[in-house]
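Form 7-S
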Amino acid sequence: MITSAVSLPAKNFLSLLESEQKALEQIARGMPLVEVLERVLIAIEDQSIVKMHASILFLDKDGKHLVHGIAPSLPKDYNRAVDGLETGPAQGSCGAAVFLGEAVCVADIAKDPLWKNFRDPALSHGLRACWSTPIHGTGGELLGSFSEYYLEPRSPTPQDIEAIGIVAKIIAVIMERNFSAQNLIGAESRYRQIFNSATDFGIISADLRGVLTSWNEGARRIFGWSEQEMLGHPVHRFFTPEDVADGRPETEMACALRDGYATDERWHVRKSGQRFWASGALTPLKTDAGEAIGFVKILRDRTEQKRTEQDLQFLAQASAELGSLVDQQSTLDRLANLAVQSFADWCVVDLLQEDGTLKRLAAAHKDSGKRQLAQDLMSRFPVDPNAPHGAWNVLRTGQAELISEITDQLLEETTRNPEYLAALRELGLKSYIGAPLAAHGKTMGVVSFVGAESGRIYGPADLALAEDLARRAAVAIENANLYRALQRSDSGKDIFLATLAHELRNPLAAITNGLSIMKLASGDKNRTEQAARIIERQVGQLTRLVDDLMDVSRIATGKIELRKEYTNLASILNTAIETSRPHMEQGNHKLSVSLPGGPTDLFADPVRLAQVFANLLHNAAKYTNHGGQIDVVLECMPEEFVVRIKDNGVGISPEMLTVIFSIFAQISHPLEHSQGGLGIGLSLVEGLVRMHGGRVEAFSAGPDQGSEFVVHLPRTLEESAQPDVAESDASLGTEAMPKSRRILVVDDNTDAAATVAEILDMLGNDVAVVHDGLAAVAAAADMQPDVVLLDIGLPGIDGYEAARRIRAQDSARHVTLIAITGWGQEKDKRRASEAGFDDHWVKPVSLDQLRKISS
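Output:
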C-alpha cells in the first residue's frame, strides 16, 4: 500500500498541493522556513493512510553532513542521534540517498546492513522501515533529504518511490523561496513540471460546464490525446457512451460541488477506442472567497489490476460451475458464456469428431444477437485444416497459441476465401488465444478466446489463464462423458437385472410346470418322461446362463484361463454351427457357410472359440426375423484369420455400435424384442477374442439394415506359456467299479443332498447323507464308503479339511473322493487335488456323472 501523498485519494493529493500554495504564500508574508516546512510535514503525516513519521534533514555547508531540520513527530532522542550524519553509501537511508543522489528505501531496518551504525536508536524508538530521497533544487543542487519512517517493515512499490520524489520536489519549491512576483510565476511553472512528471496520473482541469482547460502529460499517456486535441472539448469525450447517456459526467460534477469532491472507478475510453479501467477523483477549484470556478480531476489507469481481479474471479467462477456440470453441451455453453463476461469478446469451442472434422459446439459473444454469427461463419466457411494459425494449428501441435495482435496481413495469410476475409475484417478482431482441450495426453478440441470491440490485447499472463481454464474444461468434459457413460451403464444394469429375472423365471416356470406334470401323471410314463426332458432342458439353460455370467466375471477380473492346444479354426466353426443349428431351424433361417480349402491351423482354446462363434450365431438367429439370411465366411490372411458373421436382421443403431461390447449392452430393449437376452454374450465374445490376441468389430447401416460381426485372430502356432491343465478322469475307471456302491453324500444344502441321494439310491447304491464337515469324517469312518461326494463350503470344517481327515483314515485309503462345488477354475481343481480329492465336479451334477460312479 502506498502511504505517501500520491497514494492518497485525489482529494488529499489536491489538499497537499493547496498546502504547498499556502506555504509559498506564508513565506511571502515572512513566516520562517522551518515553521512552514513543519506545517507541510504535519499535513503529509495527517494524510497518510498508514501511521508514519516525516522528516527533513538539511545538507550542511560542507556538503558532507546532514543536520537536523524538521521532524515534527520523531522522538527528540532519535533526532539528536542522526544530527550531523555523514553522507555515504552505508550511512543509513538518508545519508546514502544524498550520497547517491537517488531514492534509497530500506524495507526492514533490523536486517539491512545500511543501518548497522544506526540500527539501535531506530529500533529502540519503534522505527522499522525508512524510505529516503534527496531534495534537489531546480538547478540540480542538493539541498538535503526527505524521509518517511514506518513502524512496521514495509517494501515500496515503484509508485511509492515516485510519490516521495514528488513530495521532495514540493519541498524544494518551498525551500527555494522567492518573494518576487517573477518567482511566483516560476513556482507555477514548477507546479506544471511536477504535474507532468507524475506520468502515472492524469491531471486535468475543466470549467464549470465541463469544458477542458488543462491536460497534463500523464493524461496524454493514459488517454492518447494530446493537450491541443483536448482543450476546449467536454469531459464527455473520454467517458463511455453508456455513461454519457446516463448523465454520469454531470452527476459527478454535481456531487463534487455538493460534497467537496467525488470519486469513482469505472471504464473510460482512449483515443483508440479501447476501454480501460480508471480510478479518479474530482475536486472543485475555488477562489479565495470560496467561489467555485472549475474542477480538477486526477485519474490513474487501473486496467491491469481490474483485469487481474476479473480474470481471477472468472477462473474461480468457471472452475466452480464446470465442476458442477454433468452434461457436455451445458458445460461448453457455460464456459463460453462465462468467458465473454470479462475475459473475451468472442469465445468458441470446437470439438474433434470421430471422422476427423471439427464441430463447433458452443459460441458466445457479449452481444447475444451476435452468437449465431459464429455458428453461421463456421457452417459457411469451414476452418482450413492446413491453416498456419487457429484451431487446427492448436490441434496439430497440442500447444496453446497466442496472437497478441491480429493484423490484416495475418488475416490474409490465414484466410484464402475473400468473402470470409471480408467478414473477419468487419468483426474487428484484435487479439487471439487458442487453448487445447486435452486430458490424459489426448486433445479433444480447442477453446478460442478473441478480443474485438473491447480492444483487449492478450499477453503471456492471459495465455496462462486460458490454458488453465482449458485444462479444467477438458476435465469437466471428460467427467460429463463419464457421467453419461455411467448413466448408460446404470440404465443397462437396470435392464440387465430386469432381464435376468425374466430369463430365470422362464426356465423356472417350465421346471415348476414339469414337476406339477410329474405329480399329476405319476402313472403315465410318457407324460412323466416328457416332463423330465423339459426339466432337463431348462436346467441346462440355467446352467449355461450361470456359466456365461461366471465367464464374464472371470474375464473382467483376469481370472479366466485359456486351455490352448493345436486346433483347426474351420473345425471350431463347424462345431459352433452345429451348436447353433437348433436356433437356425427354429427361425427357419438360411445359413450360408464359406470355408477355405487351405489349412486353418492355430494354437488356441477350441472350446472358448467355439463359444465365441456360437454366441455370435445365436445372436444372428435371435435378432433376424423369421426366414432370414445368415452368412458365415472364414478368410485366411497372411497374418490373421478373419471370420465374418453377417445377417439381414434388426440391425444396430449408431449409438449402440459404440457400446455394443459393454457388459450390459443389448441390441434392443427386451420389451421391444421377444428374445432380448441378457446382453452379456457380446461382452463375453469380446473378452475371449481379446484373450486370444485378436479383436472383434461390429458393423451395421442402422435399424432394420442387418449387422455384421468380424472376428480377427492372429495366425500363430506358438505355444502359450500358460500351463495346459487337463481334467483327470483316470481315477474314475469304470471297468473296476462294482455294480453296487456305498456312497456318502455331504452337502449343507439339505434339498441338494436329498435329491442327489435319491437319484443314487434309484441307481441301486447304498447311500448315506450328512450336512457338515465333522459329521462327514465320522460317517466315513463308520460307513467305509466307496465314494464320497463332498461339498466344499461346509459348516464346522470345510470340504478340503474334511477330505484330508478322511484320507488319513486307514479304512479310507482307497475311497474315491469327489469335490462338489460351484467354483470351477483351474486353481480350484488344483486345490482340490492337493487336499486329496480324486476328482472335481462343478454344480449342478448331471445324471450321467452319477451313473458313472454307480456302475
